[in-house]
Amino acid sequence: MSDVYDLHIDTDVTVQLCDCSREDAQAVFDVLDGVYELEDMTAPSPQTATGPSPTVWTATFDTAAGRREEVRPTHLDSPVGATLSGGYHAVDEVAKVLAAGFDIQSLQSVSGDQETEARLLLASR
Q1: Which residue among 12, 62, 65, 103 sits deepest, i.e. has the most Cβ atoms within 10 Å of its Cβ?
Q2: 29 neighbors 57 (Cβ within 8 angstroms)
Q3: Which secondary-structure segment (H or E) carries 41?
């Protein structure tokens, strides 16, 4: 493995948002994009299903790069479930940025050998 690949393992954080509207997902991603560099984003495609189906919005941010804009409280129409996955330090940094922009109503974490996963419930401040 190259040093660059190893570096990105420690600095990339994948953010998955669920149970929210497109507008609320974009509000959360805009906050993170103002601080970190957006590396990849996957938006769900329109579905023709007749019943309810879950929607998950996914983006990956590089916590070593970005603009580092000041984070201000951001409005959400309803609470948003967020799952952060990546290296310990990087996930902790992203959680701090989200805490500056939103009220964190719930925090759970699952730790692995080299990565961690944090589950947050974000709401407007």
Answers
A1: 12
A2: yes
A3: strand 37-42
Q: What is the pLDDT of residues 38-47, one digit of tens each?
A: 988 765 544 5
Contact 116, 86 (CB under 8 A): yes
Measured in whole angstroms, the distance separating CA 19 from the mean position of its chain's CA atoms is: 14
Burial readout 42-63 (b: 16 or more C-beta within 10 A, e: otherwise): eeeeeeeeeeeeeeebbbbbbb
83: CB partners within 8 A, 6+ apart: 15, 16, 18, 117, 118, 119, 120
DSSP string over 63-116: TTSS--PPP-----SS-EEEEEEEEHHHHHHHHHHHHHHSEEEEEEEEE-SSEE
Q: Which two tokens stand for residue 89?
A: 């330090």
Question: Three-state DSSP class for 13?
Answer: strand
- Tell me the one-letter amino acid at 22: R
Q: What is the pLDDT of residues 45-77, one digit of tens each?
A: 445 444 455 689 999 999 998 888 999 999 999
